[in-house]
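Students often ask what a holo structure prediction actually looks like on paper. The answer is less mysterious than it sounds. You provide the chain, you provide the ligand, and the output is a string of discrete structure tokens encoding the 3D arrangement of the protein together with heme C.
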Amino acid sequence: MHDTEEPQESHNNIPKGWLLFFFGGIIFLIGYIVAFTPAISGWSFYHGFEKEMAAAQRTENKVTVTHYSGDKVAIKEGKEIFATTCAPCHNADASGGIGPSLTAATLKYGSTQKDLYESITKGRPNGMPSFLPQIGAEKSSKVVAFLETLRKK
Ligand code: HEC
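The corresponding structure tokens follow.
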């Protein structure tokens, strides 16, 4: 005896959109797994990490000052860098403001080329920011040459 009341679901097709979504999801997943499995694609979180560390190391290793003492072009450039980067705190003529005067006969952290370079690139604890990331070793050295011209001998 045939039961005509039985639901005939098996004769209805799944909407195309759902099928697309279903298989699309599977394809995406396989692609994702392949791309991020080290054994298959060679991908590794540490590759990116190591690259970043190496780049940071390169900037950090460049801690020695370039000698620009007396170099007129470098001093002029240093003066311009000072005007834009340092003047807000040290005043345009380095006479001091938020930061101390840099023309004084003695400086708290020393006034040799190396001392000045360290103050600029590494910063000092009471509010002097580290400028190596912002202006780099080259420009820092030029600012040092400029500061040397301000020093009262
Ligand atoms: C946000 C404000 C600020 C900026 C910008 C700034 N400084 Fe300073 N600087 C300070 C302060 C505050 C100190 C004092 C830090 C301390 O006593 O520990 C200081 C200290 C110094 C010192 C050491 C002074 C000493 O007595 O030994 C030097 C050199 C110096 N700054 C140079 C610079 C140069 C060059 C720039 C620009 C590249 C610069 N500063 C930008 C705030 C600033």
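Residues 121 and 136 are 8 Å apart (CA to CA).
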